[in-house]
Amino acid sequence: MDIEKANAEATERMMGAQPVLVGLRKALDVVPGMRENLLLHAGPPITWERASGPMRGAITGALIFEGKAEDEAGARALVESGEIELEPCHEHQAVGPMAGVICPSMSVYVLENKTHGNKAYSNLNEGYGKVLRYGAYSQEVIDKLRWMEDVMAPALADAIEASEGLDIRALLSESLHMGDEGHNRNKAGSILYTTKLAPFIVKVADADVASEILRFLGDNALSVLNPVMGACKAMVDAAHGVEGSTIVTVMARNGTDFGIRVSGLGDRWFTAPVATPQGLYFPGFEAEDASGDIGDSTIMETAGIGGFAMATAPAIVNFVSGTPEDAMNATLEMYEITYAEHTHFTIPVLDFRGTPTGIDVRKVVEKNLTPRINTGIAHKDPGVGQVGAGLVRPPMQMFEEALGAFADKYGY
Amino acid sequence: MDIEKANAEATERMMGAQPVLVGLRKALDVVPGMRENLLLHAGPPITWERASGPMRGAITGALIFEGKAEDEAGARALVESGEIELEPCHEHQAVGPMAGVICPSMSVYVLENKTHGNKAYSNLNEGYGKVLRYGAYSQEVIDKLRWMEDVMAPALADAIEASEGLDIRALLSESLHMGDEGHNRNKAGSILYTTKLAPFIVKVADADVASEILRFLGDNALSVLNPVMGACKAMVDAAHGVEGSTIVTVMARNGTDFGIRVSGLGDRWFTAPVATPQGLYFPGFEAEDASGDIGDSTIMETAGIGGFAMATAPAIVNFVSGTPEDAMNATLEMYEITYAEHTHFTIPVLDFRGTPTGIDVRKVVEKNLTPRINTGIAHKDPGVGQVGAGLVRPPMQMFEEALGAFADKYGY
d(Cα A23, Cα A27) in Å, to the nearest integer? Predict the structure, then answer.
């Protein structure tokens, strides 16, 4: 068995995937396996008992949003009784930032990989402040979700349809030349996204609603985060399932466990307890307020952007800590553990070198070097929200276990 | 007389100026000294006889737009007879890109420096292809100007008023962290501009018109070029007229002559023949098609951005030629001839160092080092348009003459 050949194929598929945003639909109607009593969540599988504060908060909020619970105790009862089931987004072709909770009546972006035909899904971005994805679930949070679902989503759905699709890989290629790394900094991408949809939004909504939507999308430097996550999911899914490949196709955290999947090792999760991110805290918060690492947004690093593309986003250090030199070094270091250099995502300051793409489990273990990840930091208690942003690395143990499993399966 | 103190004052005024886009009005109604038979143009004073091809083309187009001429011969007759007069934009608190022709019935952006109270003006940007500013004047060019004036301008004027003003210095601070250098690359700035105005545009225009305007602004990576030029003009005007200052407050070209003005030397122009930019040409064109250096957009470099901020815009080399390392070196070199480092415009990759700001005539001459300029390249014949983009330097002779005049006036 030729691992090199398998990894070349996996990374070529990952980079050759062309995810286009083709729609926005109710999760229940489009997400494979979605059902009335199911909540999807970030990371590998989790139970209520082992769930982190922000994950419990987001589950509670989603069940309030669905009209199925009134508070945390009610949510807990539904989940612990099995009446409401929890499954990872990743097991349903979906991804969600932070807690990543997607419930049946939420709208999700539909990304279609035009090269290989697979689809992926992600929810709408709520912006900053008190938001469900960071575990907040006050009335203010639910009201915003309601407005997003009832007012914004129908117009956005019509606008996306009228646009005949937005090529998110092309948008990312552009935004990476505009100081974004695509994970914690999506400022350029979000206004590119807003600008591209604006001519359609004004035609499908009345003036006041269109104005409100354009302000919401334009003021939120994370508007495009979720479509980008969906696009990255479509890319890595295209690279999954290549026999004999040691390329990582999923990295995701639920606040308790970090989990990875490997292209040549099927749907098995390799998990280990999450670390706590190191970074900069918002005024009034400090390191001891932080939840463990959480979210599916590590799909970015899995696809060769985010922490791997920090060299192209030196201004991000104001948000995640460190210096522009650290940012450059983060990218240079990631070439050590990746198989390819991206053919569509390039870094001008490195003479347009492609971003380090396709984490190779062998290299991670052999060089004793784990991936670098940029991330938001949630409060450890349910109901609070974001407290900062920073940097984190996944536990080495998962990669060692995956390599062991690879050896067992393939005799490597 | 203390030159250092004067230069400190001039550069502090330049950097302390806070230009806000407060309106869009007919030039005749707001530009000081504008009159029915006047055309403003880029650079120092020029006659028809000495005017370059693109300047003649733009004058012709403006007079067709005003309904005063039908062709180049008609335009020439009006200008040579003195019936139509030509004066520099810079002598009317205005600036225009490339030929920079502003006629009485064109709308101009109104920039107000909130710190010192002075105002500055610039026209609307036409986008790419066949455009007046590059000397094209076919029916297609005039039709687009008509749409801009009759359809877009009224809506934009209402939207700017409803916005209560856009702080262009703040927008530039942001776009310089998004891969723009503010002169030849205004991609981020233009979508920031579009995104900020969009919520207002949809409220003041009907849906079809709003959609058309949003597409026009959003697809044009130079939408914000003219408001930024106006903002830079407001900044450098605030630094002009400081007794004993050797800081350059105007650099401008009309396609034939380059002209500069110096803070401590009043309104006198120091001029010399322009060079021809070196750069990359569009398919089908080559160096011998190029007009001499033209445009008021060197106001950017005068204010500390553009070629001076290239280190923050490495992706620009795909457009103007060179390598990311050249771009970095351009900025580093400009620290040699400037007095200050900008307090609002910073370069992340240089550890957020301020851009080199305030060209000091003494340093230019003493170090035998002229400013670096990014620029578009026009075809040398009237009626053709843009043929490329590149780099150019102003003639040293002007700086030497200015230093001589400074010595004469101040005994330096």
Answer: 12
